[in-house]
Amino acid sequence: MNEPYAFEVFFDGDCPLCVREIRMLQRLDRRGRIRFTDIAAPDFDAAETGRTWDELMARIHGRLPSGELVEGVEVFRRLYGAVGFGSLVALTRLPGLRHLLDFAYHAFAKNRLRLTGRCVDGVCELPARSA
What we know:
- The protein has helices spanning 16-28, 53-58, 73-82, 86-91, 95-115, and strands spanning 7-11, 34-38, 61-63, 69-71.
- The chain has one domain (7-115).
- The two termini are 24 Å apart.
- A four-stranded mixed beta sheet has the order 2-1-3-4, covered by helices on one side.
- It is built from five helices and four strands.
- It is α+β, with helices and mostly antiparallel strands.
C-alpha cells in the first residue's frame, strides 16, 4: 500500500450522494492522486486514523501523505485540486465564500442522514458499528 498519492479521502460508502460524488472523482482522477477509503466497509478500522468511527461519520475527513488529517470543506478543496480544478478551489478560499461554504457544509453534515433518505420512521442515526 505504499503507492504514491496526493490525498486520501475517507467517505461513507452507504451514503448515496457521497458515493455519487466519489464515483465522479474516481473518473476524474486519471493520475491516481487520490486514495479512496470507504469507512462503511466491514473491514475498515477507524483506529488507524486516530479518530473514532463516529467522528469520521460525522463529517468528511481526508489525510495528506504526511499523515495530517483535514476535514469538512478542506477535504473537497484537496480532492478537486488533485483532479485539476485548482482555479475553482482558489475561489473557495476567498473570505466571504469560504465562510459560506463552511456554514453550508456544516449544515449538510449535521442533516446528512435525513437529506440522503437514511432515516427510518423519523429516526436519523447511524447503525451501530460492530467492534
